[in-house]
Design a protein that fits this description.
Chain B: It holds the Pfam family TOBE_2. The complex is a heterodimer of chains A (300) and B (403). Chain A has 2 domains: 1-43; 81-294, MetI-like fold (Orthogonal Bundle). Helices cover 75% and strands 0% of the residues of chain A. Chain A is built from 14 helices and no strands. Chain B is an alpha+beta fold and 403 residues long. Chain B has 2 domains: 11-263, P-loop containing nucleotide triphosphate hydrolases (Rossmann fold), CATH 3.40.50.300; 267-390, OB fold (Dihydrolipoamide Acetyltransferase, E2P), CATH 2.40.50.140. In chain B, 24% of the residues lie in helices and 32% in strands. The longest helix of chain B has 18 residues, at 200-217. The chains are: A mainly alpha (300), B alpha+beta (403). The A-B interface holds A 189, 191-192, 194-202, 205, 209-210, 213-214 and B 84-86, 105-107, 111-113, 115, 117, 119-123, 132-133, 136-137, 180, 184.
Chain lengths: 300, 403
C-alpha cells in the first residue's frame, strides 16, 4: 500500500515538474521575459530622446506622459539640438570628441594588435611578468592617477589640449586591447604562421596577409570598445580641459547643470548626441562585438 | 629483395647543382642532395632539458622519398621542422643542394611543407591559397595563374578553385594543401603526418595518390608518420627513430626483413613480432625458450659465430609461424605445440593467439574454419626468417647495424 502511494506521489511530482518546465520554456514566457528586459534597457534611451525634444516646462509637467503632448515639445522639434550646436559650442565639443576618440582608437588598435600578436607568438625573458605588468597598470583606479596626470600635463603645457586626452585614453585602453588581441591571436592556430613562413612570407607579410585578416572580429571589438570609452569618458576630460578647444561632449553636457537651474532638455539633447555612436555600433557591428569578446573563451 | 631507390627526376625538373658544388658541404657524398650532419636538437627551458634529436646523420639522394617513422616523441617531427627552418638546431648542420642552410629563414630554404592540419588560409579561396607562395615571391599574375591551373589539374581539383577551404571535405583540403606545395616547385617537399586526419579509407586512397604524385614529380621528399603502413608503402628508404636516435635507415623491405634491433623488429609489422627470452646452446644446436625448443639454424651460427651457451632474445613474426595440423604427437625438431587461445578471423587470414607453457604469442595463418579456441595444434616455424637480439642492448645478432 505504502509503495503504491509513493509511486503515485512520484508520478504527481514528475507531472508538476514537467508542467513548470513547460511553462518556463513556452514561447509566451520567453517572449514576456525578453520583452521586459528589452524595455528595461531601451526605456532610458527613449526617455532621454523625448526629453531632448521638450521644453523645460514640458519636462517638469506632472504626471509625466509616456507619449509627449504637442504642447510639451519645442517648436520646431529640433530646436534644442540647434541651440546646443549653435549657441552652446556643441559643434566644437562633438568635433573634439570625434578627434580624440578616432586618434585614440587608431593608436590603440595599431599597438594593441602588434603587441598582442607578439605576446601570442613569441617567448622572451620574463614575458609573463611584462604581460601582467601591462594588465596591472589598468587595474589601478583611474581617479588615483588624476593628480599625477594633471601635474605631468601641466609641466608639458598640455593642459586643455586634445593631445592630453588622447594620451590618457590610450593609457587606459591599450592594456585591455593587448589582452583581447593576444587571446584572439592565440585562437588562430600557429600552423598558419608556419605555413606562411614556409610559403615564403616574411614575419610581417605573415602578420599582414594571414593573421590580421583572420583577427578582424577582434580588431573590430577593440576599436569599438576604445572608441566608445574615449567618446564618453568624463572624469579626465572634466579635469584636463577648460575651453571649447578641447572640451568633449560629456563635459559640454555637464555645463547644462547651472548654478540655479538644471537645463534638463539641453542636458538630454547632449546626452543623446553622446549615445549616438554607441547605438550605431551596436546596430551595425553587434556580431563582431560578441565574437571578438568571447574569443579565447570558446575555441573557435 | 630491397626496393630500388627512385632514380633522380629528369626532364624539366633537373636541377643544376654544379654551381653549388664548390661551396661548403665538407664531406658531401656524390649523390647526396640533402645532408643531415650530426643534427642535434635540445629543448632547454631553464632547468629541464630534453634531447629531441641526438646526432643524426643521413644523406638523402636527389628525388628520393625518405620516410621518418617512430612512436610519438621520437624526434621525427623535430627533424622535419629543423629542415624546414621552423626550429633552430642545437648542433650539426643541414645542407640542401650543396648549401648550408644554417641560420636561414624558412623562406630562404625553398622547401615546401604539408601540415597535418593542412593549415589552409581560411580567408582565402582555394586558388588564392595555392597562389600565395607565388605571390609573396613577386611572380607576375599570369604566370601565377598558369602554375595554379597546372597544379590543380595534376591534383584534379580544378573545379574547387573558387571555393573556400571551409566548404571542402578533409580529402579535398588535403589536396589543396598538396597543391599549395607543388605549385612552388620547391627543392624539397616536407610532409608532417599529412594523412593522419583523414578517415581510414581515404587515407589509403591518398597514400596511393601520393605515390603516384611522387612518381610524376620526382622531387626529393621527406615524410614523417607514425603509421608503419604509410612508411612501408611510400618510402624509398625508411628511417626508424626512437627517443631521438636513428635506429635503422634502409629500404622498407630490408627494415622489415632485417631489423637491426628489437625496437625496429617490434615497431615495424602488425601484429608485431613475437619476442621470447631464449637460451642458445650452440653445442646442442638448440634455441630454448619457455614455450618451445627449436634447432639453432646453420645460417645463424655462421653469422654469429659464437660458441658455448648464451642468453638472447628470440624474435619471429606472426606470419612466419604456420599451422602444421591438429596434432598431439608432433616430433620433428622445428615443431612445437600450442593451445589456441583466441581466433580472430580477418577474412584473408586468421590471427591466432597461442599459448604454450604460460607464454602467449601470435600467429597469422591461412583461413581454416576448423580451428577453434582450446584446440591444441602443432606449429612450424620458418627458421630462415627468425631473429636473435642481444639480451642487453637489443641489437640484432644476425643483422648487425652498419651505423
Amino acid at each position: 500500500m505504502a509503495t503504491s502511494d509513493k509511486l503515485i506521489d512520484t508520478d504527481r511530482w514528475y507531472r508538476i515538474n514537467q508542467s513548470i518546465g513547460e511553462f518556463l520554456t513556452s514561447k509566451y514566457t520567453v517572449v514576456a521575459i525578453l520583452s521586459t528586459m528589452v524595455l528595461y534597457f531601451t526605456f532610458p534611451i527613449y526617455w532621454t530622446f523625448i526629453s531632448s525634444l521638450k521644453t523645460l516646462d514640458g519636462i517638469h509637467a506632472f504626471p509625466p506622459s509616456l507619449v509627449p503632448d504637442a504642447s510639451e515639445l519645442v517648436d520646431p522639434i529640433w530646436l534644442n539640438y540647434v541651440h546646443l550646436l549653435t549657441q552652446r559650442s556643441f559643434d566644437m565639443f562633438t568635433f573634439n570628441s570625434l578627434i580624440v576618440a578616432l586618434v585614440t582608437t587608431a593608436i590603440v588598435v595599431t599597438f594593441g594588435t602588434l603587441a598582442g600578436y607578439g605576446f601570442s607568438r613569441f617567448r622572451f625573458p620574463y614575458d609573463d611578468y611584462v604581460f601582467i605588468g601591462i594588465l596591472g597598470a589598468r587595474l589601478l583606479p583611474p581617479i588615483g592617477m588624476l593628480v599625477p596626470f594633471y601635474r605631468l600635463f601641466g609641466q608639458l603645457n598640455l593642459i586643455d589640449t586634445r593631445i592630453a586626452l588622447v594620451v590618457v585614453y590610450t593609457y587606459m585602453n591599450l592594456p585591455l586591447a593587448i589582452w583581447l588581441m593576444r587571446n584572439y591571436f592565440i585562437s588562430i592556430p600557429a600552423d598558419l604562421d608556419e605555413a606562411s613562413y614556409i610559403d615564403g612570407a616574411t614575419r610581417f607579410q605573415t602578420f599582414k596577409d594571414v593573421i590580421l585578416p583572420l583577427a578582424k572580429p577582434g580588431v573590430a571589438a577593440v576599436a569599438i570598445l576604445t572608441f566608445l570609452f574615449s567618446w564618453r569618458e568624463f572624469l579626465f576630460a572634466f579635469a584636463l580641459t577648460f575651453t571649447t578647444s578641447a572640451k568633449t561632449i560629456p563635459v559640454g553636457a555637464m555645463m547644462m547643470i547651472e548654478d540655479v537651474v538644471v537645463l534638463w532638455n539641453y542636458l538630454a539633447a547632449g546626452g543623446f548626441i553622446a549615445m549616438l555612436p554607441a547605438l550605431l555600433f551596436v546596430v551595425l557591428f553587434q556580431r563582431y562585438i560578441v565574437s571578438g569578446l568571447t574569443a579565447g573563451a570558446v575555441k573557435g | 629483395m630491397s626496393k630500388q631507390q627512385a632514380p633522380p627526376a629528369d626532364e624539366d625538373t633537373t636541377t643544376d647543382d654544379t654551381q653549388h658544388m664548390t661551396t661548403t658541404a665538407p664531406d658531401a657524398t656524390d649523390d647526396a642532395y640533402l645532408e643531415i650532419d650530426g643534427l642535434t636538437k635540445v629543448y632547454d627551458d631553464g632547468d629541464d632539458s630534453v634531447v629531441a634529436v641526438d646526432d643524426m646523420n643521413i644523406d638523402i639522394a636527389d628525388g628520393e622519398f625518405l620516410v621518418f617513422v617512430g612512436p610519438s616523441g621520437c624526434g621525427k617531427t623535430t627533424t622535419l621542422r629543423s629542415i624546414a627552418g621552423l626550429e633552430e638546431i642545437t648542433e650539426g648542420q643541414i645542407v640542401i643542394d650543396g648549401e648550408n642552410v644554417e641560420g636561414q629563414a624558412p623562406r630562404e630554404r625553398d622547401v615546401a611543407m604539408v601540415f597535418q592540419t593542412y593549415a589552409l588560409y581560411p580567408h582565402m579561396s582555394v586558388s588564392e591559397n595555392m597562389e600565395y607562395p607565388l605571390k609573396v615571391r613577386g611572380m607576375p599574375k599570369d604566370e601565377r595563374d598558369r602554375r595554379v591551373r597546372e597544379s590543380a589539374e595534376l591534383l584534379e581539383i580544378t573545379e574547387l578553385l573558387d571555393r573556400q577551404p571551409k566548404d571542402l571535405s578533409g580529402g579535398q583540403q588535403q589536396r589543396v594543401a598538396l597543391g599549395r606545395a607543388i605549385v612552388r616547385e620547391p627543392r624539397v617537399f616536407l610532409f608532417d603526418e599529412p594523412l593522419s586526419n583523414l578517415d581510414a579509407k581515404l587515407r589509403v586512397h591518398m597514400r596511393t595518390e601520393l605515390n603516384r604524385l611522387h612518381n610524376q614529380i620526382g622531387k626529393t621528399s621527406i615524410y614523417v608518420t607514425h603509421d608503419q603502413a604509410e612508411a612501408m608503402t611510400l618510402g624509398d628508404r625508411i628511417v626508424v627513430m626512437d627517443e631521438g636516435e636513428v635506429q635503422q635507415v634502409a629500404p622498407p623491405q630490408q627494415v622489415y626483413d632485417q631489423p637491426v634491433n628489437s625496437f625496429v623488429g617490434g615497431f615495424i609489422g602488425s601484429p608485431q613480432m613475437n619476442f621470447f627470452d631464449a637460451e642458445v646452446d650452440v653445442d646442442a644446436g638448440e634455441i630454448r625458450t619457455d614455450a618451445f625448443t627449436l634447432p639453432y639454424p646453420e645460417w645463424m651460427h655462421d653469422r654469429i659465430g659464437r660458441g658455448g651457451t648464451f642468453a638472447a632474445e628470440f624474435g619471429i613474426r606472426p606470419e612466419d609461424i604456420s599451422v602444421e595440423g591438429l596434432d598431439e604427437d608432433a616430433t620433428a625438431e622445428d615443431h612445437a605445440t600450442a593451445e589456441v587461445v583466441v581466433v580472430e578471423e580477418m577474412g584473408s587470414d586468421f590471427f591466432l593467439t597461442l599459448e604454450n607453457d604460460g607464454v602467449e604469442y601470435q600467429a597469422i595463418v591461412e583461413p581454416n574454419t576448423n580451428l577453434q579456441r582450446g584446440d591444441r595444434i602443432s606449429l612450424q616455424f620458418d627458421l630462415q626468417k627468425c631473429h636473435l637480439f642481444d639480451d642487453d642492448t637489443g641489437d640484432s645478432l644476425v643483422y648487425p647495424s652498419d651505423r
